[in-house]
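User: Can you write out an input/output pair for a complex, sequences first and structure second?

Assistant: Here is one pair. Inputs:
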Amino acid sequence: MRNGKTKTTLEQPQGLRPLAESFPNSRKIEVGDLKVPVREISLTDGTSIQVYDTTGPQGCDVRTGVPKRRAEWIAKRKDDKTPTQLWYARQGVITEEMRFCAIREGVDPELVRSEIARGRAIIPANIHHPELEPVILGRNFLTKINANIGNSALRSSIEEEVEKLQWSIRWGADTVMDLSTGKDIHQTREWILRNAPVPIGTVPIYQCLEKVDGKAADLTLDLFLETLEEQALQGVDYFTIHAGLLLEHVPMTAKRRTGIVSRGGSIMAGWCLAHHQENFLYTGFERICQLMAKYDVAFSLGDGLRPGCIADANDAAQFGELKVLGELTEIAWKYDVQVMIEGPGHVPLHKIKENMDLQLEWCHEAPFYTLGPLVTDIAPGYDHITSAIGAAIIGSMGTAMLCYVTPKEHLGLPDRQDVKDGVIAYKIAAHAADLAKGHPGAQDRDDLLSKARFEFRWEDQFNLSLDPETAIALHDESMPAPAAKTAHFCSMCGPHFCSMRISQDVRDAAAAKELAEAQAGMQQKSAEFLQKGGEVYLAAAGVDVPVP
Amino acid sequence: MRNGKTKTTLEQPQGLRPLAESFPNSRKIEVGDLKVPVREISLTDGTSIQVYDTTGPQGCDVRTGVPKRRAEWIAKRKDDKTPTQLWYARQGVITEEMRFCAIREGVDPELVRSEIARGRAIIPANIHHPELEPVILGRNFLTKINANIGNSALRSSIEEEVEKLQWSIRWGADTVMDLSTGKDIHQTREWILRNAPVPIGTVPIYQCLEKVDGKAADLTLDLFLETLEEQALQGVDYFTIHAGLLLEHVPMTAKRRTGIVSRGGSIMAGWCLAHHQENFLYTGFERICQLMAKYDVAFSLGDGLRPGCIADANDAAQFGELKVLGELTEIAWKYDVQVMIEGPGHVPLHKIKENMDLQLEWCHEAPFYTLGPLVTDIAPGYDHITSAIGAAIIGSMGTAMLCYVTPKEHLGLPDRQDVKDGVIAYKIAAHAADLAKGHPGAQDRDDLLSKARFEFRWEDQFNLSLDPETAIALHDESMPAPAAKTAHFCSMCGPHFCSMRISQDVRDAAAAKELAEAQAGMQQKSAEFLQKGGEVYLAAAGVDVPVP
């Protein structure tokens, strides 16, 4: 058991503590006419930094939902037949959503528009989801993370699901997928959407399967389209659709070590096998596009054949499907529907690059959205770590969004602590990727935190971190006294042995030496000056006397 | 607080539970005449797998220590003047230590000898440490991990330190560094060594500083040599020595964001600055080599100028020192002393490769031993994760040993849970690296675990994992009933929605189809056979009728 403690029960919904308790010395502020939310962290040296904020409006009644900030933007476009961000971008129009994202990312709105027009980025933003704070997903923007929530036949309640949403975005989830499969699936989704400032994704085939009492063979395209419309009208922003899994791929999985591990993939494989017909999501793909274009629901083209273990990585089934996803991307684009592509899964380190390379080539640089990948199979209970390793690497190669994995992966349904552990591990992976991509300003927070660390400004170090609560708690385990938070040492080395302190001495000594040399230099120059007869001179490269 | 629980006190030493409770269905066995320890995990399908084992002899009285398995091997070499593994390897001798490592790694003993002779691998094995189960560190062997333990001026007791050693190796630490700085430093080390089946490393300058009451300026080469001898006689297997930090490097750190973060590095920089003289560890390096050769203590050439934050990565100070470490490597080799090279620190993803490339080039492929690296600064409390990401990558590039980082890094002194969290994160990183390096047999455990997972053999999945306790505990949070451990589904999807089950159906269907086709094929062949007049034929590529 982690921490050597035993959990006796799953947490019940209890309401979240105020944001300020999770993030001391932070406040939410709004930027510009579009009221883009940012979180401003105030430091004890009088400076501050603004960081990307996903926490959404606070203190709203969950039965009312959060404010409908997009309502006006959407209303004025009501006559447009294809109200997708891709369609507008192709018309040269910079929408409010694009401008919103540009402010969030600190980039030119024209970059946002052109990347969307080219299919290299998407803003999943259903016209029936006015509560949304738009988010852009693409390789030239900040790396995003997704958290999955959802009940299951075994447990979980609707109130719990909304709280899981709020909990996920508190720690930084950029989008949330509702993977519910229970009987209250429609109502759960409604509550989640009305409370969601982030894009919500679903896997509609799950609900379809509920409608046919779990009999995959009874699924039809009409039922599917009907379900898509039902969910699109609620405001779902992106649909995972396993249209690339073809009948011919199914036998390729029979010799795999872990067969088909995607739920959606296995459902469609089951259907194909039962009917010995081509996947109706593939044959009916254009009708699906037409429907999704009406609402601006984005495709997340599902990788139903993703590898479920190291042994199955990068095999013929996986890459066969990926190639089809590339064909489907072009069809979706024809209908002005935004597309991203889902990726693996379980992949050893040396096989990750091939995934990114082939996805870029075959899928025409449509945004990649990967699950991890997990770089080994041997650590159930720690798969947030095994997968954060793969996620950081594929993120640094340009994956647009990383789907989180929690410590409960392969073992059970994540609880609140698992969700947080998964989100934080993925914030680390995404940020590491942004540093590697050289995203403008990404390193600012690292720099400020390291400066605070070096200067023993403990509270600033905590408050600049991804999870101040945990940083403070771990610090207090060793040095609980309040005075320790201003101590010029930490418990690792003790008061007489602190490398940071010695290093500061070195710096002071170096500065003193530089000052002494500068003074000596000035005296010499002064002597030279007098020797040369007192004429004024300047060194070619500027004044060459260092001024301390 | 992790898990939402509050810790009230640091754990007191309490004795570890029996190994079998941490690793159900495992037993320790000994292989061959050298009695190489392995752990055999028995599976419910009647098969088993042997895994590398670092846990050491169990049930010994800590006041007596563990058995002296090397005593005989060492005794018969007592007349050799330079009893180092490097010297023997260069003479063409395969020592018991080399043979022991070859069995552990499943490789040819000659490979072990030749890699050591070439300086590309080391077996840290002081002749005064007969309790050691030898371990090989090198890019062509399994990636190893090191755990740091040690008291500090603020807390910790001797009993606690021995238990930390045992706790670290239970979860897989391959070597342990004793970084104690308190007053009982000699006695603590003695207890650790007498109970250590793994190589023990130290940073002798810490004890030297104790001897001069913390005044770095009072350090001398003679005091240092005296301390080395004291520790070498106790049996320390490798010394971190910061001999590559030169006087000329010190000013390069003054403009750094976090200066010098290595304790040893800052001590030596302080000395250089105080005396305005060259580092005495550099000027006295040959005398140090002569001493270490007598006992076969290996060098871990310290990176006193490793970057302490992302901003300082790969700077002139860091690489200036690395280049000197390469020169020192050649000097140590001249004296037949084994060498490894310490590396960073904090490095963003895109700057990791340069570290490995330059280390290989400048240090002549001597084993690299890196601390992480941490790929971002913004996650105090989670630096086991930020650093496991960097460690997996640099490990896959050939780093021989990864020095763990715990969640307490930058915050405080790790307790038992932190040590375990750090070790497991690093076992993940090391194993991911071994998969990527294609180490023979590394994937076997992944394959068996994934097969168990696919076949719903829950207990086998748990027992094959790095930490069965945690896997079981997380599983039981969702499905506590004993029956659930044999359930053909898990709580993520529930009983009617399991992709593993559907996938098994697909596999069964495919097998049935293949059988049907095979039968149809045979009937056709049979008909052809009769048509052609009954002559016997074989297809070119073998019998072409698939036999199910």
